[in-house]
Write a structure and sequence with these properties.
The complex is a heterodimer of chains A (about 140) and B (about 180). By secondary structure, chain A is an all-alpha fold. Helix content of chain A is about 55%, strand content about 0%. Chain A contains four helices and no strands. In chain A, helix 3 (about 70-80) runs antiparallel to helix 4 (about 80-95). Chain A starts with a helix and ends in a 41-residue tail after the last helix. Chain B has about 180 residues and is mainly α. Chain B has nine helices and no strands. Chain B is elongated and about 60 Å long. The longest helix of chain B has 28 residues, at about 155-180. Chains A and B meet through helix 1 and helix 2 of A and helix 2, helix 3, helix 6 and helix 9 of B.
Chain lengths: ~140, ~180
């Protein structure tokens, strides 16, 4: 293992005397750069978000057509009744649909379940006459 | 204050603790990286980068491994990347290098004997895969388990690489010796 002993003879170098100072100087520089980069990233994210929000609002305001209120009273006044009816029929279908929700309490309408055990009724025809069907 | 305590303080952003770690390891890391690059300035630059990474990646350190293994692992990765870069760069003849640059290198190779020069040459031609474990074992004095930890390889692989690296060096030295005898 001659080469192993030779390793000990290989020239060993040491760090320069100002090594620590250089590292510490680099450290503060790098930290400052990181801080700046992080701040820049934050600003760019905020700017991008603001831009998209603005673009969304502008698109809604400018490009999407506004739906005005339909006043049938005034419509009937200005336009002949037949035309107004035709127009109202044309407008009404889906665009001017107003949902109405009515609360209905069915608790008194439906008979409550009886506590008795369930009974099965078997219905049989008992009369001799033939079934003529039910007439309504 | 032990090393685990120091790195814990670094994790909290303590610069004084970081300076202590730098002070403990600076010579070892510079020397270790010098054995790869054979360029003192480059070794110092890489060592600085190693310590900066130690500071900024301190939160990733887990106390399963020793601090020295972790720092050497960072240095090894940097050295490997640097070697890859150096391979890509075109080779410039030494005659074209300004004299000033030659004088600035801190290593004094002329102190090496012929055999040591041959060893250095053989070491430079050894593939980094084998060179790193050989240097860690024979120059830095790490155990095979520690090297396995640094390189994140199984101990068996490390053993094999050290063995192959040594046998390659032995062959190269024998070759150089026989060439010298034939003259």
């Amino acid at each position: 293992m001659e080469e192993l002993n030779l390793f000990e003879k290989l020239t060993r170098v040491k760090a320069p005397p100002d090594f620590e100072h250089k590292v510490m100087a680099q450290l503060s520089l790098r930290r400052e750069r990181k801080f700046r980069a992080r701040r820049g990233l934050r600003f760019s994210f905020a700017a991008a978000a603001a831009f998209f929000l603005l673009a969304f609002v502008m698109t809604n305001v400018i490009f999407v057509p506004k739906k005005g209120q339909v006043d049938f009273a005034t419509l009937e006044k200005t336009v002949p009744s037949s035309v107004a009816r035709a127009k109202s029929q044309a407008i009404a279908p889906s665009s001017e649909f107003i949902p109405i929700t009515e609360a209905v309490d069915y608790s008194h309408e439906v008979r409550s379940l009886s506590p008795e055990p369930q009974t099965i009724y078997i219905l049989e025809q008992v009369s001799d006459t033939t079934n003529a069907g039910i007439k309504y | 204050m032990d090393e685990q305590e120091l790195i814990r303080l670094v994790q909290e952003g303590d610069e004084a603790a970081f300076a202590k770690i730098v002070n403990i390891y600076k010579d070892k890391i510079v020397n270790y990286l010098y054995q790869f690059t054979r360029d003192y300035q480059k070794a110092v630059e890489l060592s600085q980068e190693t310590f900066l990474r130690v500071y900024f990646k301190a939160h990733k350190y887990r106390p399963f491994a020793s601090l020295s293994s972790w720092i050497y692992a960072i240095a090894s990765n940097l050295a490997k990347t640097e070697l890859k870069k150096m391979r890509k760069i075109s080779v410039v003849s030494l005659d074209n290098v300004p004299l000033q640059l030659k004088l600035e290198t801190a290593c004094n190779d002329c102190q090496d004997s012929g055999l040591v020069k041959n060893l250095r040459k053989a070491l430079s031609s050894l593939h980094p895969r084998y060179r790193i474990p050989v240097i860690l074992k024979d120059m830095e004095g790490f155990s095979q388990e520690e090297i396995a930890e640094i390189l994140k390889r199984p101990v068996g692989t490390v053993k094999a690489r050290i063995s192959r690296g040594r046998s390659y060096l032995r062959k190269e030295l024998e070759k150089a010796l026989s060439a010298k005898n034939s003259l």
